[in-house]
Amino acid sequence: MQKAIPSLPKIKVEEKDKEIIVKIYISEIKLNDIEIEVKEDFLEININKNSKSEEENNDWFMNEWSNLSFIGKILLPSKIVPMLPHRSYDGKILEIRLKKA
Q: For the CA atoms of 38, 86, 18, 41, what is the dihedral angle to 10 degrees?
């Protein structure tokens, strides 16, 4: 069974008075597969998902591995306080809220 190759995620950056909100449109990823690094003027996102499946029948055996990897650096429109951001993920959209400096 061949799976479709995923495209690059859509990213939306929104600037508010006191914060910057970054939304990354991804799905089928677990929150622990996502690493976020925050600097004062950029955000780096690392997504690494590994999966393995096995299937066996009387006449054959199938072993399948897949790896999905994405590394993105997002330049921010304003400087931020480089601290642990507030993030939420509903299974489709990763939202990261950053406090402006």
A: 10
Query: Collapsing DSSP states into helix, strand and coil, what is residue 26?
Result: coil
- Integer Cα distance of 46 and 53 in angstroms: 23
Q: What is the DSSP letter of 80?
A: B
10-99 fold: Immunoglobulin-like (2.60.40)
Give the domain ranges of the chain.
Answer: 10-99
The alpha carbons of the chain give a radius of gyration, in whole angstroms, of 17
pLDDT values of the chain reduced to their tens digit, one per residue, 101 residues: 445 445 678 999 999 999 999 999 988 788 888 898 999 899 998 988 888 888 888 888 888 888 878 888 999 999 998 887 888 999 899 999 999 98
CA distance 97 to 28: 21
